[in-house]
Amino acid sequence: MKINNRFHWSSLLFFLVFSCSKEENTKMPIQEPPLLGIEVVHLPVVVHVIHTGEEVGVGANLSKERILRQIEIINEDFRRKEKTRGYNEHPDGGDAKIEFVLAKSNPDSEPIDGINRINMSIKEINDLGYNQNHYAQFAYWDPSKYINIWTTPLPLDTECLVLGSATGPKTDLPGTQLLATPKQGDAEGILINWMHFGESNIVCHARYGRTLTHEMGHFLGLLHTWGGHDCELNDYCDDTPAVDEIVFGRNSFEGCSGETIMIGNYMNYSDDDVMNIFTKEQIQRIYYVLDNHIGRNSLMTSPALQL
Ligand SMILES: [Zn+2]
């Protein structure tokens, strides 16, 4: 596509954002962060540790160290940090320049460490099934100020079977219909099975804390690399090779166009230890969400980021 000098910059931005699609054959320069004039975006998270009465550090009542390590891991991944599992030298890989911060104050403006422990066994709660609305009955902080993460006290036989889920942002980005966007009144946030939160020695492909990285990708608007299982319209990002089947495991294979698929992409179901990349167009999609979704945008200036 040629750009003449009457082409308005806002139109260019519009085009760049929506060029993140397999429909486009032309490659355009990628809009890199900082898109919003902020060098590094900070987003506040609260970890609601839902447990069944265990001591701190036992079972679902996760230790503070494990929670801190999980936050460190997601930041290594979003920052493509050198000398960590989140580093890559792929030409399409990017540093999202996003860091997650444990909330420094609660909704009453009292100082906290970003961890909210709830003993669910002493509360009577309606069962709405395994979803955000169920866990929001125990704790749910203003989603325009906090990213609510619930670690869920599932039984051990769910290990490696139930990992996590996230609600997605409702925007006009193509493919939004493939995200679990909340209906009016629904709770927004991320559920992570406690066994998959942080690092552990479980015998499983998902033990290095990448479940949260993947779910945060959805929360910020990313699709699986296979999107709706369609070679033409999959994840709306040109720099993730098109694939129309679920990607898991640790071995690459040929995608739609004969290109090798990107096994290390966080938006696959790949093994945690091979994941190491968000692409520049995925990051561009995240920045569109941060810029345009009211509830995600306000997180960047949340009072919970400061004491
Ligand atoms: Zn997913």
Please describe what this structure looks like:
It is a single chain. The strands form 2 sheets. Strands 1, 2, 3, 4, 5 and 6 form a 6-stranded mixed β-sheet that branches. This protein has a two-stranded parallel ribbon with strand order 7-8. It is 19% helix and 12% strand. The protein has 307 residues and is of the alpha/beta class. It is globular, with a radius of gyration of 19 Å. The chain has a single domain, classed as Collagenase (Catalytic Domain) (3-Layer(aba) Sandwich). The structure holds zinc ion. The site of zinc ion has 3 residues, from helix 4.
Q: What count of helical segments does DSSP give?
A: 6
Helix content: 10-25%
According to CATH, what is the topology?
Answer: Collagenase (Catalytic Domain)
Query: How many domains?
Result: 1
Structural class: alpha/beta
Task: Please identify the top-level CATH class.
Answer: Alpha Beta
Radius of gyration: 19 Å
Shape: globular
Number of strands: 8
Low-confidence stretches: 1-31
Sheet of most strands: 6 strands, mixed
